[in-house]
Write a structure and sequence with these properties.
alpha/beta, UDP-N-acetylmuramoyl-L-alanine:D-glutamate ligase, 9-stranded mixed beta sheet, globular
């Protein structure tokens, strides 16, 4: 365990253990970091779908954050799925008071299975309250298009770069647009840090056992890298490698049900 280093995840719980809070804690553990949690919603899900979502009351989410931030030395945090504008406002109020903490905002809207996880009011609250606090935001291309209020583009790295620039111009944060939803031999993520564009490419893995939870795992790994002192570009590169390795070694735990591998698996 790395002395004095904690990461916090503010996200939804995944009953299958593949995504959300459970995935984030797996990642933090792989990096040797203590993981703290503020659970914003409960979900009944598995790799094939989301069957129910139960948002937790805003006052309870606020109490979780007050308990954690009042005791632990949190070096970096990530946010994932959050349901309800009141909860998002409570989270944003507390994060705004802690500028020293690196903040990875993953504006989760749609599960890997295609299920929509949050309503329109929650999306607007994320845009208005959370994204301006981000050290870096990590939308995929469809999420970035929604956050920029534009029609779907061609999914190319050039389009991802345009979306990253637009988001930076609107919200003022660095933006990593993830290209895993695209086609082609390479999965290309595009970072705009306010000064220039950087591309991070990895070979697309053919017929992987699992990709469920990759977005959560990437943002958690990015938070862990930042907590350990990496610069943003190096943190993105390290997080992308972490997820590539997790996908390439994913394995089955049920009939057609796969999970990402941890470094210890």
């Amino acid at each position: 365990m790395t002395a004095g280093k904690c990461c916090l995840t503010v996200a939804g719980s995944d009953s299958g253990g593949n995504a959300g809070i459970q995935a984030d804690l797996r990642v933090f553990g792989d990096y040797g970091l203590h993981g703290c949690t503020a659970i914003a919603a409960l979900t009944a899900q598995n790799p094939f779908g989301v069957y129910a979502v139960h948002p937790l009351p805003a006052e309870f989410v606020a109490a979780e954050l007050d308990a954690v931030l009042g005791a632990y030395s949190v070096a970096a945090l990530k946010t994932g799925m959050m349901a309800g504008p009141d909860s998002i406002a409570a989270v944003a109020e507390r994060l705004a008071a802690r500028p020293e903490i690196a903040k990875v905002i993953d504006p989760v809207m749609i599960a890997t299975s295609g299920a929509r996880l949050v309503d329109g009011d929650s999306v607007e609250a994320v845009k208005r309250l959370l994204l301006p606090l981000a050290t870096v935001a990590t939308p995929n291309i469809p999420e970035a298009e929604a956050l920029c209020s534009v029609a779907a583009g061609d999914g190319s790295p050039a389009w991802a770069a345009e979306l990253a620039r637009r988001m930076h111009g609107t919200y003022g944060c660095c933006v990593l647009v993830k290209g895993g939803h695209g086609d082609g031999e390479l999965a290309v993520d595009v970072l705009f840090d306010g000064k220039g564009i950087s591309e991070f490419s990895a070979q697309r893995i053919a017929n992987p056992v699992s990709t469920h939870g990759t977005g959560c795992s990437l943002s958690a790994a990015l938070a862990a890298e930042l907590a350990l002192g990496a610069g943003l570009a190096d943190a993105v590169a390290g997080a992308k490698k972490y997820v590539f390795d997790a996908i390439s070694r994913s394995y089955y735990v049920g009939d057609g049900c796969g999970v990402l591998a941890s470094r210890r698996a």
